[in-house]
Amino acid sequence: MNFYEAVSEANLNAETWLITVADGDFAGEKAMISGGEIVWTSDENGFVISHAEELTAVTESGLRTVDGCRVYSELLGNEKKIVVCGAGHVSMPIISNGKMMGMHVTVIDDRLKFANDAIAQGADVVKFKEFEDALSEIDGDDDTFFVIVTRGHRYDKECLRSIVQKPHAYIGMIGSCRRVKIVKDDLAAEGISRELLDTVYTPIGLDIGAETPAEIAIAIMAEIIEVKNRKKRNFGFPKDVMKMLLSDERDKLTMATIISRQGSAPRGMGTKMLIARDGGIVGTIGGGCVEGSVIAKGRRMLLDKDHKPVIMEVDMSGDAAEDEGMVCGGRVKVLLEVV
Predict the structure, then answer these.
(1) What pLDDT does 268 receive?
(2) Which end of the chain is flanked by fewer CB atoms within 10 Å, N or C?
């Protein structure tokens, strides 16, 4: 089993870390750590095994120096998903914002017109059925964000009863303090743990004085971003990237991974892109001049006989960056590997 096959089959219910030695004599060596144990390694006598104690104790994604070598550690997560219960006015901007963030968006509503609105807004999946039935089809996981924005507390209760017992990254529920209290009290009376119910984000969204549906949606998405970024679980292998990596028919490719980020940048740490000899790409690390220079370097690497990984630094600050239209103003380090 190669590294990418191991990644595709990883148990994400356990804390799973991907390790890449980025430079030095062992550059390119890879390993997977799950539950504090090395479960896959590209070299049984290599750098990771000899530094197992330090690397199995890693607690933060990023680039670090271990015994003189730079090592990239990445906490692996699932695709980030939003499940929106209710397809009313607030849901529409949640859908569009979720899609802009690269999240998979599922919407549930039992009213045909509202379900059609969610489809038109661009939701990935729309379940036109009773909330309880639809939620029984959704398992949830540590990267699923549930948003309850239904039309009444009866439906809120129905949704929360199901969701609170699923694995989740976040549960938020809209409603007045009175409405929320009624729902929680009723569910507590049914035997659901009050401690569990108190983990629900209510009132939903950051307190920014939001009033209109669009403003409320922004407050909700801001809260989701805040919760998501606390965990620092990367989703660096979108389906199209992983499909290409697992293909038996593919040619050699260069994989670009953002391994460090300072300031503002188009994409976060762990974002990956594949580069072909002809300059074709799968995935993106943000577009623009950053991506263009990385693609050029990646293509040159495919022609070299020496396929050692390279760390490329891209500065998006200063006068030169402004002249090129780079308005982000940050710096990123990108690891380039021939795969």
Answers:
(1) 79
(2) N
What are the tokens at 77?
Answer: 């997560």
- The pTM of this model reads 0.75
Same domain, yes or no, for 224 and 115?
yes
Q: Where are the alpha helices (DSSP H) in 9-137?
A: 47-50, 52-55, 91-100, 112-121, 131-135
CATH of the domain at 150: 3.40.50.720
Give the pLDDT of residue 320: 46
Which among 58, 53, 50 is positioned nearest to 19, based on CA atoms? 58
Closest to 213 in 3D by CA, of 127, 86, 110: 86
Q: Which pLDDT score, from 0 to 100, does residue 326 have?
A: 47
Strand pairing report for 37-41 and 62-66: unpaired
Q: Are residues 206 and 311 in the same domain?
A: no
Label each residue of 248-294 as H, E or C.
Answer: CCCCCCEEEEEEEEECCCCCCCCCEEEECCCCCEEECCCCHHHHHHH
Low-confidence ranges of the chain (pLDDT < 50): 320, 326-327
For 252, the token pair is 């050699």
Whether residue 283 is found in the same domain as residue 301: yes
- Residue 176's domain comprises 81-231
User: Does one domain contain both 225 and 88?
Assistant: yes
Number of domains in the chain: 3
44-83: pLDDT as tens digits? 999 999 999 999 999 888 899 999 999 999 988 878 999 9
- Say if CB 77 and CB 233 are below 8 A apart: yes
Q: Which two tokens stand for residue 194?
A: 């009050």
The whole-angstrom separation of Cα 328 and Cα 265 is: 5
Distance of alpha carbon 233 from alpha carbon 241, whole angstroms: 18
Under 8 Å between Cβ of 10 and 17? no
Q: Which of 44, 77, 110 is the last residue of a domain?
A: 77
* Whether 57 and 96 share a structural domain: no
The verdict on 173 and 259 lying in the same domain is no
For residues 250 and 243, give the distance between their C-alpha atoms in angstroms, rounded to a whole number: 10
Query: Are 126 and 117 within 8 A, CB to CB?
Result: no
Altogether, the residues listed in the chain come to a count of: 339
Rounded CA-CA distance 98/74 in Å is: 23
177 and 270 fall within a common domain: no
279 in the same domain as 211: no
